[in-house]
Task: structure prediction
Amino acid sequence: MASPIIDFLLTRNSAPIPELKEPAPSDADIATMIAAASRVPDHGRLEPWRFILYRGQARVEIGRKLAALAEQREGPLPENRHNQELARFSRAPLVIGVVSVPKDNPKIPQWEMFLSGGMAAMNLMIAANALGYGTNMISNWYSDVAEGRALLGLAPQERVVGFVHIGSYQGPAPERPRPDPAKLYADYTGPWKA
Ligand SMILES: Cc1cc2nc3c(=O)[nH]c(=O)nc-3n(C[C@H](O)[C@H](O)[C@H](O)COP(=O)(O)O)c2cc1C
Result:
């Protein structure tokens, strides 16, 4: 049966971040994307995620802070690396941080909450794509550094799922090698034997 959703899923890919241009998604489009992102499997309905919008001048200020943090950690940076840090959040017109917010729960492990965040990020990207935007999610060094997460607005117990870069994009995006799906599944043959 012909299905535009299957057609989309079998061809979707990420756009190169430098090619994500203005116009950024409108507030109404952002609201739609977040609604889709929050409609994901979530064991115990804990809502273990939130979303931070980085847009406008805030992206430039973050670049300055990331460059300063990188220098504090690594010493003086070569000019190209300094410029790279300055531009981290300014390449796309909108970056949405998908943040995993672990909740105390006696039954539900935190790794399930983190997985739910990954699903939220994927739904966010699919919704943005369906609205006509290109997307690309990255984490980068500052996601794994407490000071980096703090300057990006995360609380100490929160973790980065990904920074979804979003913008207008004149595709098609370059294809990259994909796994052969036929090699990825098999019928169950009993317990694992080493
Ligand atoms: C959790 C996560 C973090 C990622 N972080 C980075 C990153 O820091 N830098 C990078 O170049 N790509 C990163 N990637 C890969 C990009 O998203 C990549 O462009 C993407 O996987 C392309 O795949 P697609 O075309 O199937 O969307 C990350 C991917 C995932 C799932």
